[in-house]
Specification:
Helix content is 64%, strand content 9%. The protein is of the alpha/beta class. This is AAA family ATPase.
Length: 769
């Protein structure tokens, strides 16, 4: 597999930039902050997105925010890679609101998402899922970042499990980590007995509660049986008393019939009114359950949505104001740039400095003379005149020849001095005239004409104005950048409020649909109907109670004043009434005892079912634990079988790099130890120097990536910062050798790596950011 082309539409600092990679070794050069790490992260994002691993719902990582462009309206790109002779094109939009990934056959242009594994958490297909490559394995093997990778919990286990599955030699395809994950999920679904909300915990809690309820039910039904015997005895006694009183009641009833007619009329009237009320109550029964407490809750939800809407309106206004302010700033920036008439501060500064330089040279030429020539000529003239004077005064001795020689030399020196002084003055004047006429004045005039200025002072004023204008322009640019950041934050806040409001509106609509109303006003109307219904029920029940009293008076043989109709004829009526009351009391007590309590036989059957369910849960958890133990044993055995080969592979690489450490041991948790060649003791990697630690990790990644995925490109960002020259050369030779069978992408900020590659004749493709 090899990466062919990156097209970065908007990512970090990059916008509309294309980078082409070649097979073999690609050397990506860029100074600090040129975007090397950004390009490396873009490749990772195109393959995997920016999601935190080991989550049950889609959660974005910190890199999502870190590399989001200031202009959040675009955050996307594409990547073309070749695998098994087929070109695949990935197009991804990173924006949270537009999160998407499309996978194309780059030859036919057909969408082929369904040919790759699907992740239900992030709801996307995985471009490298068919190769068993996850983001965690990618960042722990083939992708070496500039700083040490801070692994999340479980990442080393995932690398270990992937490696062990690669070493499975049974001929049977076994997904160790998948099986273990499903077993753990199954155990978690069942839970533990101490967890009240787990399945097994809920079953145990329900069983224990039923056991207590069974005790209450058995005691209650024992009391019910006792009461029922008393009721039977009292009913038999009442039958005997009623038989004795039967023949005495007729005469008394006839005598008092007229007194009961009024009660019958009132009963008839109340029954008619209750029939009417019953019909109304039956029709309005649909309003039962509507209440003002629920209404207040619905209004509270609606008010919350309105408050969020107000906040969203405020943010929209802030965003609009920010956009308008930014527009004003851009207009001011354009005006500032247009005032320069197409010139730049750099060009104006260069011309200004040239103008001042020429102005200084003119001043220097005005002052400059052939000082040395003039001084020497003057001295020679004075010395010659001195010799002539001495010779004329006879102060040169008695010899006539010496006087003549002195006179001759003095005259000659005086003449030479005068000639030299004349030449110096003439040369100085000539040089001034030439510089003024042919060099200095035309250059200054050309500069002044370029900016349509009259003289030097006006150019000074113009330059100061340009510098001040540039400072104001930079201030406007900084202010614009702050507004863009503020606008981005408002946008993020608006999206959060939008999602919250949408959730509240959905909740409100769901509740309204549950209550079968269209809006809160309709629910309020039904609350009013429900209140009227309750008032009708109260009136109905009042009439019913009065009816029951009247019927008791009539059927019990009493008049309105409470006198018994057969009081004189039925001396045992009080005893009969007492027995009836006792029966009613016992029946009421039985009803209270059995209210809300199930039959003991049914409770026992439910407890038996729960015991079977709990036993099944325990058996299932024991089976899962046994399977996990078997898988752990298999993994350890596989590690024991394959560790020597991996240790030797990584040890050879580390020996090539360091020429010192040869022995390497890797435990079943993929933790590295090196053997001290002096004492033969094991040493943890974190006990080594920083540079050696880098080399151990490089050897580990080089070795493990070859075993887990020997086709994936090997990507490294400034891996040799803490290497000395000898170890850096050895590492580059390993990469050069690897690049003959596998694509290598090496990011660097200086030319040391390139010089070393050239020194031992390695071939590479250079990319400059």
């Amino acid at each position: 597999m090899r990466i062919k082309t990156l097209t970065i539409k908007a990512f970090g600092k990059f916008k509309d930039q294309t980078i082409d990679f070649k097979p073999g070794l690609n050397l990506v050069y860029g100074r600090n902050e040129a975007g090397k790490t950004t390009v490396q992260t873009f490749i990772q994002g195109m393959f995997f997105g920016f999601y935190k691993p080991y989550r049950k719902k889609k959660t974005y990582s910190e890199e999502y925010e870190k590399y989001m462009p200031w202009n959040q309206f675009d955050y996307s790109g594409s990547l073309v890679y070749e695998v098994d002779g087929r070109e695949i094109r990935l197009e991804r939009n990173f924006l949270r609101s537009k999160d998407s990934l499309f996978i194309y056959d780059n030859t036919t242009g057909k969408i082929i998402n369904d040919q790759f594994k699907y992740d239900g958490v992030i709801r996307q297909h995985l471009p490298l899922g068919n190769q068993g490559m996850t983001a965690v394995i990618y960042n722990n093997t083939v992708n070496m970042r500039q700083t040490a990778h801070d692994n999340e919990a479980g990442s080393q286990d995932e690398v270990r499990d992937s490696y062990i599955e690669m070493q499975n030699s049974s001929g049977i395809e076994i997904n160790f980590k998948g099986i273990a994950r499903r077993l753990e999920e199954k155990k978690n679904a069942i839970g533990r007995s101490g967890q009240s909300k787990s399945r097994i915990g809920a079953a145990i809690r329900e069983r224990d509660e039923l056991r207590e309820l069974l005790k209450e039910a058995e005691a209650a039904y024992a009391k019910v049986a006792e009461n029922q015997e008393k009721i039977t005895r009292n009913q038999m006694k009442m039958k005997r008393i009623e038989a004795e009183n039967d023949f005495l009641s007729q005469e008394s009833v006839v005598k008092r019939k007229k007194e009961l007619l009024a009660s019958y009329e009132r009963i008839n009237k109340l029954e008619k009114e209750n029939n009417r009320l019953s019909k109304i109550i039956k029709e309005d029964q649909i309003y039962e359950g509507y209440n003002y407490k629920t209404l207040e809750g619905l209004k509270a939800i609606s008010n919350q949505a309105e408050r969020l809407s107000d906040q969203m309106d405020y943010i929209e206004k802030e965003m609009a104001d920010a956009s308008e302010h930014l527009k004003t700033i851009r207009q001011k920036e354009a005006a500032k740039r247009s005032s320069l008439a197409g010139h730049t501060l750099e060009g104006i500064t260069e011309d200004y400095e040239l103008f001042k330089k020429e102005e200084t040279e003119v001043a220097e030429v005005d002052k400059k003379t052939n000082v040395v020539i003039n001084i020497i000529a003057t001295l020679v003239t004075l010395l010659g005149m001195g010799l002539v004077g001495l010779a004329n005064m006879g102060m040169m001795g008695t010899s006539q020849g010496i006087e003549n020689l002195s006179l001759t030399v003095g005259v000659t020196m005086a003449i030479v001095g005068v000639v030299g002084l004349s030449y110096g003055i003439s040369a100085t004047l000539k040089k001034r005239r030439i510089l003024k006429e042919k060099q200095i004045i035309p250059i200054q005039e050309e500069i002044l004409a370029k900016y349509q200025l009259k003289d030097g002072p006006s150019f000074d004023s113009y330059y100061k104005k340009v510098v001040r204008n540039q400072k104001e322009l930079e201030q406007l640019q900084n202010e614009g950048e702050l507004i863009i950041i503020q606008h981005s934050r408002h946008q993020a806040g608006y999206e959060v409020l939008f999602e919250q409001r949408r959730g509240i509106i959905r909740d409100l609509d769901r509740k309204l649909a549950e209550y079968q109303v269209k809006n809160i006003a309709e629910y309020a109307e039904r609350c009013e109907k429900a209140q009227q219904l309750e008032e009708l029920k109260i009136r109905f029940n009042g009439n019913l109670e009065l009816l029951e009293n009247l019927l008791e008076t009539v059927n019990g043989g009493k008049t309105e004043d409470g006198q018994a109709v057969w009081h004189k004829a039925s001396p045992k009526s009080e005893e009969l009434l007492s027995l009836g009351k006792e029966i009613a009391r016992l029946e009421g007590e039985n009803s209270a005892l059995t209210d809300g309590i199930g039959l003991p036989v049914e409770i026992k059957e439910t407890i038996k079912t729960l015991d079977s369910q709990i036993q099944a849960f325990d058996t299932e958890i024991s089976a899962c634990n046994a399977a996990l133990e078997i898988i752990s044993t298999i993994q350890k055995d596989c590690h024991q079988d394959s560790a020597p080969e991996l240790n030797k592979n990584i040890g050879d690489i580390l020996d090539t790099l360091t020429q010192h450490y040869k022995g390497v041991k890797i435990d079943d948790a993929m933790k590295l130890k090196v053997i001290d060649p002096k004492g033969g003791d094991f040493r943890d990697v974190d006990q080594l120097s920083a540079g050696t630690m880098d080399q151990v990790h490089f050897a580990f990644r080089y070795g493990i990536s070859e075993l887990i995925s020997h086709e994936m490109p090997f990507i490294l960002d400034e891996p040799f910062v803490r290497y000395d020259k000898q170890r850096k050369t050895a590492a580059l030779k390993l990469l050069a050798e690897l690049s003959s069978t596998r694509q290598v992408i090496l990011f660097t900020c200086d030319d040391v790596e390139e010089n070393l590659l050239r020194s031992f004749g390695a071939s590479y493709h250079k990319i400059v950011l």
